[in-house]
DNA sequence: TATTTTAGTTACCCAAGGTAACTAAATGAT
DNA sequence: ATCATTTAGTTACCTTGGGTAACTAAAATA
């Protein structure tokens, strides 16, 4: 199966471009959406928790969160540990989640339209396997 | 199948990082590899041909090719149309193609190891379908 | 021959992320 | 209790990678 990665990578730009286009309506980008999605599904979180979960560095999350706070999509809540910055979705953020989630789901539906359900499932489940294999081989080295 | 795109996108960074790591041995990045790959499979080409094929803008290809010329991986040949810059792989370029191709194939083999052949095939064939669907819906708009 | 199109380059801009060095707060060890 | 270490977050700086607009030179077309 030579060329799997090539095909995989070739699809990245069209997809991310389309998604960013979709999100630009709401003043956000896909990378910021990741944070919104995280907060919706995991609840209020610290920046370190978000960074760890999505395997990016802390400064990356600082930047994303700063933008989202400017937009009024997330807000800080206070905890005991004064080092931590705990953030959660605002009401505006909850609304944006809903409409964007709907848009993404509809987009997914359209672009997977002609792909049988069992094939989607297989492709869907391959991604974490490859991710796992990549991590394993990093450990071996 | 909510979340297909999310999984797809989450895998991008690990994969591209691993590939760039692999290619750094030879002083190139994945985006430059695309050009090498193109020249190997399509033969000597103009910048416009490469740009069109991979759906990127001309300045992007100008930059990639410039870097590859500096590295002695590609060279310019002369054609009738003096506007065009026709480039091809040098001997060095051919060698780099071989070793990198081998490395990529081995990497692919390792990270697809525990995935049955028929599943790989399905996932492999889904990518161009999604790409096509994305392009269709862009046309509709 | 004059106009338009095409190939490529240049300059400028943006998104996205990483690393290193730092501050402030919390933990742990003596 | 105090001193050293770890942890959370920020800041500054750098790198990749690509897009847009404006431009030059050459070719095609009217």
TrEMBL record, chains A, B:
A Pfam family reported for this protein in Swiss-Prot or TrEMBL:
MarR_2
Return one GO MF term: DNA binding
> Would you tell me the protein name for this molecule?
MarR family transcriptional regulator
Which PANTHER family does the entry mention?
A: TRANSCRIPTIONAL REGULATOR, MARR, TRANSCRIPTIONAL REPRESSOR OF EMRAB OPERON
Q: Which UniProt keywords apply?
A: DNA-binding, Transcription, Transcription regulation
**What superkingdom does the record give?**
Bacteria
Keyword flag Cytoplasm: no
Source organism of the structure: Neobacillus novalis
